[in-house]
Hints:
Elements: H1 8-32, H2 36-63, H3 73-117, H4 140-148
Helix pairs in contact: 1-2
Amino acid sequence: MQGDQVTDKNLCLAMLNELKWNASSLTSNILECSNEQLRQEYINILNQTFDQQKQVFDFAHQQGWYKPMMAEQNMINQVQNGAQKMINEQQQSMLTQQHQMQYQATQVPFQQNMLNQNQGMSYQSYSQPNYNQQQPYQNYSEISQYFSR
C-alpha cells in the first residue's frame, strides 16, 4: 500500500504538523508563565519554532506537497476589520478599567474621611424603627387578615 509507506512527503507534512502543535503549546506556556526568565526562554524557543516551521513550509510548498488555500480579498478585509474592532474594544475596556481604578482610588480617602467624621455618632440613630409592638405573624391567615382590614 502506498499510503502506509514512509515518503519524503509524509515525513515533511508530519514535521509541519508537529511544528504547528509545538508553536501552539509554547504559546500556551508563555501565556501561563509567571517566571519572567522562563517566559523569555519559551519565547526564544517559540521564535526558533516559527523559523523551523517556515523552512519546512517553504520546502513542502516548493515540492507541491502543501498548497494552502488562498484567501479572497473580502476575507482578508473581514479579518483586518475584525482585528481592528477587537483592538478598539480592548483599548476601550482598558480605559474603562483605568477610570474605575482612578475613581476607586479617590473614593478610599473620601470614605475614610466620612468614617472619621461619623465616629462620634451612636449606632442608635441607624437602628430600624419599631413600628409595632405586636408579635410577628405566625401564619398566612394572620397576614391575610391584617391586609383585609
